[in-house]
Amino acid sequence: MDKVHILIEGYAYPKEDGSFVASPTTTLIEADGKKILVDPGTNKEKLLASLKSLKLKPQDIDFIYLTHYHPDHFLNIRLFPDTHIYDGGVFWKGDEEYFHKEFIPGTHIEILPTPGHSPEHTSLLVNTDDGWVCIAQDVFWWEDGKQKSETEADLLELQDPFATDRDAQIASRKLVLEKADWVIPGHGKKFRNPRKVKQLCHQ
Ligand SMILES: [Zn+2]
Fold first, then answer.
1. Percent above pLDDT 90 for the chain
2. Is the dihedral of CA 86, 116, 5, 47 positive or negative?
């Protein structure tokens, strides 16, 4: 089974001067002997401290995976100058580009195309001892304290001021809820898929 460690729980909040503070959820996947860091975010101190708590240094990370190209999700790639990078379709090794789809090569980690927040957005589906964990990032996100509830209706209706295609985003939300037992949002706390909670109650 693969493992998912949440290194930083994503946050986002406005400040009184009109600026904004945000770093996304950053996760470490351990799969097939590889350590894959998903969306290294913006918070350098927290990321290094969190890696250190697992006795890891930036050089111990085998690959970085980027779910989409919003700077709050990737600015910390500066801490990993020699680490090769995947996104939903391409693996970059220096100036070489290798193409893939459906799975991160050499692993069982499924890549779900989840457009809507941005056209290139993808999510990862990981099989763990706790069930299927979807690293869904900005398919679901909210400002700190703004999440209404974890019911399916509220999750589908979450407002996203940055979404480029609202209908595609709702379809992506439904896809994640069809597949996952647990969902990791881009900014906010990991939650159990409400559809799975219902099934548990009916057993
Ligand atoms: Zn984003």
1. 92
2. positive
- Beta 110-113 vs 131-141: how paired, if at all? unpaired
Distance 186 CA to ligand 1 centre (A): 8
The pair of structure tokens assigned to 173 is 């939300």
pLDDT in tens, 169-181: 999 999 999 999 9
Contact at 8 Å (CB) between 49 and 73? no
CA of 203 to the centre of ligand 1 (A): 37
Domain 3-202 fold is Metallo-beta-lactamase; Chain A (3.60.15)
Classified as helix, coil or strand, 195 is helix
The 10s digit of each residue's pLDDT in 67-98 is: 999 999 999 999 999 999 999 999 999 899 99
Length of the chain: 203
State the distance from the centre of ligand 1 to the C-alpha of 66, rounded, in angstroms. 11
What are the residue boundaries of the structural domains of the chain, listed by start? 3-202
Residues at Cβ < 5 Å from ligand 1 ion: 70, 138
Distance from residue 32's CA to the centre of ligand 1 (Å)? 28
Token pair 């990981």 in the structure block, residue: 126
Task: Record the tokens describing residue 150, joined without a space.
Answer: 């974890």
For 77, other C-beta atoms within 10 Å of its C-beta total 16
Of 110, 112, 94, 105, the C-alpha closest to 34 is 105
Give distance in angstroms: CA of 55 to centre of ligand 1: 29
